[in-house]
Amino acid sequence: MANVLYITAHPLDPEESFSLAVGKEFIEAYCEANPTDEVVHLDLYKENIPQFDADVLRGWAKLRSGLSFDQLSETEQSKVARLEAIVDQYVTADKYVYVSPMWNFSIPPVLKAYTDATSVPGKTFKYTKNGPIGLLSSKKALHIQASGSVYSEGPLAEVEMGYSYLKKILQFYGIQSMEAIFAEGTASSERAPAIKEEAIAHAKEVAKRF
Prior knowledge:
Blueprint: E1 3-8, H1 18-33, E2 38-43, H2 54-64, H3 74-92, E3 95-101, H4 109-118, E4 125-128, E5 131-134, E6 140-147, H5 163-172, E7 177-184, H6 192-209
Parallel strand pairs: 1-2, 1-3, 3-6, 6-7
Antiparallel strand pairs: 4-5
Helix pairs in contact: 1-6, 2-3
């Protein structure tokens, strides 16, 4: 049995979002093919993901200086503990499915906040004399991304910073097995329905072997 984190980063519903529509079909097909796996849905727009603000940075600094957790302020304790819970949940998973739109060539802010929360020394990577190394080499990931234009190839590929960013972060964690499903060109009202159906068909195929 595998533990799967289904991580969505879109504020709308599958009926309104291309990425969520494809993601929904993927996870349903995955659950059908893997009925004993445990799937946890993290809707990042409904999750409490603390920003790296003054409370967090000062709380961490106090802990590094030798102070105990109880000596942090209540706000510092709340945010630091929540961030630790997020990364602890992350490292216990076996597979990760990220679902997001491309916004301004990149990922939504909530997904960036989540990757900040999961990028923790000693949890997802560690520092060595030869540089940092990832600690999650046994994991695998999938990214489902929708975009108005085509960015996975062609003239706009050089400005694609959604999937490419996430891929680099996960490689930093040691995750080398990563796939992508793109629903691209959705800004074309004529082609959008076909693009969506093609991406869903692809998602269902990937779900059978992921």
